[in-house]
Design brief:
The protein contains 3 helices and no strands. The protein is mainly alpha-helical. It has a domain at 2-64. Residues 76-86 have a biased composition (Polar residues).
């Protein structure tokens, strides 16, 4: 039961409320009491919004990266003495 309680404390949605590794070891060894789990949504509301914001940001980065890659794939035309081939291979194993 002790291990389950420690596991629940370690999975707290708020990183600031999770115990340090040394505290976890002390809890498992019985040297330190196990904190009661607090499930008050008012406490974690900001963390959950932050997670949603981070996920949206990651999605936008992936979308922007995909669009940038599509733009880079287009052939550039103009008067240049440089080759239209990439200077470096895109695939390391294509050497």
């Amino acid at each position: 039961m002790r291990m389950t309680k420690v596991a629940l404390v370690c999975t707290n949605p708020s990183p600031a409320l999770r115990p340090t590794m040394s505290a976890v070891v002390s809890m498992l060894e019985g040297k330190l009491g196990i904190e009661e789990l607090v499930n008050d949504p008012r406490i974690y509301g900001d963390d959950f919004r932050f997670v949603a914001l981070r996920d949206k940001y990651d999605e936008l980065l992936r979308q922007t990266s995909t669009e940038a890659g599509a733009l880079m794939d287009h052939t550039v035309t103009g008067s240049s003495s440089a080759s239209t081939q990439d200077l470096y291979p895109r695939d390391l194993y294509s050497l």
